[in-house]
Design a protein that fits this description.
By secondary structure, the chain is mostly helical. The chain has 9 helices and 2 strands. The chain has a single domain, classed as Arp2/3 complex 21 kDa subunit ARPC3 (Orthogonal Bundle).
């Protein structure tokens, strides 16, 4: 390897990127512990996901979610109610957790193809939330019906989506406000 080529080679992630990703995963865990228990717990996880996608960007935000899910999968108590383990990811609510990762994919795609402005950012996060709801609801129905028998889509939406729409939109607004306040302090 020549001296010239070694100067142009850049690491995939800088140390600071890894710190942001780890801090993001920790933030999601802490926000998951702030919980009101219901069939699908009310938590601040969506707030953290929205904040990370907006403040860190799609790549680092999505990797934060992936690290969070991996920590939970190996048994660390990072999920709502201080739970962890692969059983949570494969259980009724696991689709919503995996849906956070899909929200990140939506943000990654938007960063590549959509104009960068506040309206686009809001629409992208709302689309990411809709994808999370869709995947999580489909997953919930499959797992629930396998264990308990048939259940209607309207019933599942009433349990898992409708009660969360307004709180999640409020969390989205708060997360965007916070992200834009801290953005000057985060290196891109």
């Amino acid at each position: 390897m020549t001296m010239a080529s070694s100067k142009t080679a850049q690491p995939r992630f800088r140390t600071l990127d890894l710190v942001y990703i780890a801090a993001g995963a920790a933030l999601i865990a802490v926000c998951s512990w702030i919980s009101i228990p219901t069939a699908i717990p009310f938590t601040l996880q969506t707030f953290a996901v929205f904040l990370l996608m907006s403040a860190l960007g799609g790549k680092r935000g999505t990797l934060s979610v992936l690290v969070y899910l991996m920590l939970g999968a190996v048994g660390l108590p990072v999920f709502a109610g201080f739970t962890g383990g692969i059983g949570i990811l494969l259980g009724n609510t696991g689709g919503y957790l995996a849906g956070f990762l899909l929200t990140g994919v939506v943000c990654l795609l938007a960063e590549r193809f959509a104009p960068k402005n506040l309206l686009t950012e809001i629409l992208v996060l709302v689309m990411g939330l809709a994808v999370c709801y869709a995947f999580g609801t489909a997953w919930f129905m499959l797992v629930y019906m396998k264990a308990n028998g048939p259940v209607g889509l309207g019933t599942v939406l009433g349990w898992c989506v409708f009660p969360f729409v307004l709180p999640d939109l409020v969390k989205l607004g708060l997360a965007l406000t916070a992200a834009h306040r801290i953005a000057p302090y985060i290196r891109k």
